[in-house]
Design a protein that fits this description.
Number of helices of chain A: 4
Strand content of chain A: over 45%
Number of strands of chain B: 13
Mean pLDDT of chain A: 91
Oligomer: heterodimer
Order of helices and strands of chain B: HEHEHEHEEEEEEEEEE
Helix content of chain A: under 10%
Largest sheet of chain B: 5 strands, antiparallel
Structural class of chain B: alpha+beta
CATH class of one domain in chain B: Alpha Beta
Helix content of chain B: 10-25%
Mean pLDDT of chain B: 90
Radius of gyration of chain B: 22 Å
Low-confidence stretches of chain B: none
Distance between the termini of chain B: 86 Å
Low-confidence stretches of chain A: none
């Protein structure tokens, strides 16, 4: 696919700018915004921890990715462009090197009375994203913006509708299948006049998405299905439709979100479906054609210091990609909300479940209570199985926050976790990972500008009796000290110590003994106005990196990382 | 009026295309030319999904008898032996070939004649979806044979040395540089294999076939000839000293010699033709 000529785009940018400047009669002077982000890695080979055997460690030594966003709004116009640069980057695939640059995104929009017209690369979402979400998540290099057009119509103050059509972005190109969608969303206040306003409200919505496969993609499906025996064959269709109906009901302090989504039958890869082989045996993994559904509900209460959220979700055959041959995080059209706590501490976040798209039944309860100005407690419980009842994930997480004074705050708690590593990481024959992780976080404000924060965590893991070791990498101890001098500087030093090595811990090549290794990290952060820079030395063990239930296995890292971000 | 307007748009966008002509699924055709296809299977003992790839390979061999030669490349990725493995299939040649065929996203993966099929990204030749391998073989097997390869292997039991003579003969005029590649493979090695992808955990008595054990040519192939005309023959001779038999490995009966000719000079292919013979 031919890249959009950057010079042409710059000219368009200038033309619009000039036109708008010419409209001197208007008082709106417009606003110019932008942002820059860079992450550069200096790779230092460390074969002991598995940081080797990719070009960056072997001979490139440096990899970076950068984004520059520019946007201008004036008189109802909204234009923007983003320049993306990848230099020997390992962000696209942690085991490979990727180099490319060009216009990664652009858009032009104009509001006209009740209409809003937009063309280019468009981010959007229907409901909670179950049937459609076009968004950017740079940490995983997800940017599945719709390259196309969108028309939004404001029916009245409470209702609006929009339609869109286009193709999904794929780095500097786009996937060939076409998509179109329509959404109607509203707001209804059912509160009687005597009761005041906004006591009982509804925010209903309905969305539809259609996808049409291109000939090449259909041909690739046919190429696969024709290799199957008759019992596994199906006739694929070019078009797939997904619809979702959703509503947020608010009644005083209670909020109840419900969404039901269905998808017509389409071809997708089911790793567990049994395929008949030519010798008569069967083995799991084949392309199937099935319809799918997701049902999701979230009930929450907030008032009098108490916050409660209860969630439930059922997912069946809802793998929805532009091309069924794509895998992992490629080509996803939708986003199914995760049903576990999004943890931030190093060890409590070590085992995070990826949202299962084909078979998942999940529940989550979150309770938070503020006893007084000093003391807050919270607890979270999540439980995830497949539709056959096989346990995938369970987490119990507690937290106590005590603010003794303005000077210091202490936060601590305990995490109990079960994690089906065989499903989430395709590690064969391993038992369900069981961990117990106590943690404590202490913040002390030395003065108005200076503060020190420390973290301590200990992850105790179960035994893999068959292997004769602790599960996975064994037990971990983590400590961090962070010293901040507001408003500019922050320094951090931490160490993740594999105190009791496990089955997958590195082995001493001479003695054959499992090694108890340190994974240190040193960070320096500098902030100036809306600019932030960091320089870090990192030695990091292999692990799962997740953002909102979208996860991938990141290999070990050894080296320096420099980041810069700026907004204007 | 406003509501009808949007309802009309929605109906026209969605319902207008609800019915469509069903796609017909053709049968696999195994009517091929005389050309022999090379399949390099990127696999590994610790790769839970690789047995799925091997099943596809077995299907290919059953459907296209005599038309396909398979080489199992146990490089570095997911190839470390299991705790009760007798053998370590990893080798420097296998690792070099595995790197040479990059980029690929994971295993199992395979090349079919190292051919850059049109649906692969520019510069890529490795197929990561095993479901696609069979149809790619079907596609490739329609290619006319352009040259012939004859392998003559003479093995001396005492010295455990094989003298391998490979003769390439043109069947149509071929322009450009041709390169000769020579692999040594071994089959019928019984050893554990991670088969988590099949839901079978670790299979302790898995039969590993076509395992790449050595490479007698350069990674990019040895220079063979510039331009090959009809009936023109070029002969190259290699010698190979087989390691001593150990624990059921390096058995003469299980050793094979695979030769294939690639075009394109320093590039990776595609493979014009391949041949195989027992090392005896």
């Amino acid at each position: 696919m031919k890249l959009i000529n950057p010079i042409l785009l710059a000219l368009v940018f200038l033309l619009f700018g000039t036109l708008m400047v010419a409209q001197e009669a208007q008082q709106d002077k417009g606003s110019f915004t932008g942002g820059f982000q860079n992450s550069s890695n200096f790779f230092i080979r460390d074969s002991l921890i598995g940081a080797f055997d990719i070009p960056q460690y072997d001979y490139q030594h440096f990899g970076a990715q950068s984004w520059l966003d520019l946007g201008y709004t004036r008189s109802g116009f909204d234009i923007g462009v983003r320049f993306d640069v990848f230099n020997n980057s390992n962000l696209r695939n942690p085991n490979q090197s990727y180099t490319a640059n060009g216009i990664g995104r652009w858009h032009i929009g104009k509001s006209l009375d009740k209409f809003d017209i937009r063309a280019g690369y468009i981010y959007d979402q229907i409901g909670s994203g179950i049937i459609y979400r076009a968004y950017e998540e740079r940490a995983l290099l997800i940017d599945n913006a719709l390259k196309g057009v969108r028309l939004t119509y404001k029916i009245n103050d409470n209702w609006n509708a929009r339609v869109f059509a286009g193709q999904q972005r794929n780095l500097f190109s786009n996937y060939e299948p076409n998509m179109r969608g329509a959404v109607l969303e509203g707001y209804v206040d059912l509160t009687s006049k005597e009761e005041g306003s906004k006591l009982f409200t509804l925010a209903p919505g309905i969305g539809l998405i259609g996808k049409t496969l291109d000939d090449r993609t259909m041909s690739s499906i046919v190429d696969i299905v024709k290799t199957y025996l008759d019992e596994d064959r199906f006739k694929p269709t070019h078009n797939t439709y997904a619809g979702s109906i959703y509503n947020t009901l608010s009644f005083g302090p209670i909020s109840f979100y419900t969404e039901a989504a269905i998808k017509t039958a389409e071809a997708f890869n089911d790793p567990l479906a049994l395929k008949t082989n030519r010798d008569g045996s069967t083995s799991p993994g084949k392309m199937v054609r099935e319809a799918g559904s997701v049902y999701y509900g979230s009930l929450s209460y907030a008032g009098n210091g108490l916050g409660v959220t209860l969630e439930a979700k059922r997912t069946e055959n809802f793998e929805f990609r532009v091309d069924p041959n794509l895998q992992l995080i490629e080509g996803l059209i939708n986003f199914i909300p995760p049903m576990n706590r999004q943890n931030t501490y190093r060890l409590t976040a070590r085992y995070s479940p990826a949202t299962q798209l084909l078979s998942e039944q999940a529940y989550q309860a979150d309770v938070k209570y503020r006893w007084n100005k000093k003391l807050t407690t919270s607890a979270n419980f999540s439980y995830i199985t497949d539709l056959d009842g096989n346990k995938l994930f369970q987490e119990t997480y507690t937290e106590i926050i005590y603010k003794h004074s303005r000077k210091f705050q202490i936060k601590g708690g305990l995490q109990l976790l079960d994690y089906n590593q065989e499903i989430y990481e395709q590690k064969t024959g391993v038992p369900i990972v069981e961990t117990v992780t106590p943690y404590v976080d202490f913040l002390y404000k030395i003065s108005r500008k200076k503060s020190i924060r420390t973290e301590f965590q200990f992850l105790a893991i179960g035994d893999d009796e068959k292997a004769g070791f602790k599960q996975d990498y064994g037990d971990w101890l983590f400590g961090l000290v962070e010293f901040s001098v507001a408003p500019h500087w922050s320094f951090g030093i931490s160490d993740m110590y594999n105190i009791t090595p496990g089955k997958l811990s590195p082995t001493d090549p001479d003695s054959g003994e499992k090694l108890a290794l340190h994974y240190p990290r040193i960070d320096i952060y500098y902030t100036y106005k809306s600019n932030r820079f960091s320089l870090s030395y990192i030695k990091q063990v292999e692990g799962i990196v997740c953002n909102g239930g979208i996860c991938r296995l990141e290999p070990a890292f050894s080296g320096f990382n420099f980041t810069a971000s700026s907004s204007f | 009026m406003k509501y009808q307007f949007f309802a009309l748009i929605v109906v026209s966008v969605f319902l207008g295309a609800c019915t469509e002509t069903m796609v017909m699924i053709p049968e696999i055709s195994n009517e091929c030319t005389e050309k022999v296809i090379l399949v390099e299977e990127l696999t590994g003992v610790s790769c839970p999904n690789c047995p799925k790839g091997t099943e596809v390979v077995e299907d290919i061999l059953a459907l296209f008898p005599g038309t396909v030669i398979v080489v199992g490349v146990h490089g570095d990725f997911l190839s470390e032996p299991k705790s009760d493995s007798k053998y370590d299939f990893r080798s420097e040649p296998a690792k070099a070939v595995e790197d040479f065929l990059k980029p690929w996203l994971g295993k199992p993966a395979a090349t079919v004649d190292r051919f850059p099929f049109v649906d692969l990204p520019d510069g890529e030749i490795t197929l990561i979806n095993p479901n696609q391998w069979l149809s790619r073989v079907e596609q490739r097997c329609q290619t006319p044979q352009s040259l012939d390869i004859q392998i003559d292997s003479n093995y001396d039991e005492e010295s455990r040395q094989a003298t391998i003579t490979v003769t390439t003969t043109g069947m149509v005029p071929i322009e450009g540089e041709l390169r000769m590649n020579l692999f040594i493979t071994e089959s019928h090695l019984i050893d554990p294999q991670d088969a988590g992808g099949l839901g079978q955990g670790i299979i302790s008595d898995y039969e590993h076939n076509h395992v790449l054990k050595d490479m007698l040519s350069e990674l990019t192939g040895d220079f063979l000839v510039n331009n090959l005309s009809i009936d023109q023959s070029v002969t190259k001779t290699y010698t190979y000293e087989m390691p001593a038999e150990s624990n059921g490995e390096w058995l003469l009966d299980n050793m094979e010699v695979v030769a294939f000719v690639t075009e394109g000079g320093q590039t990776r292919g595609p493979v014009l033709h391949a041949a195989i013979t027992h090392m005896d």
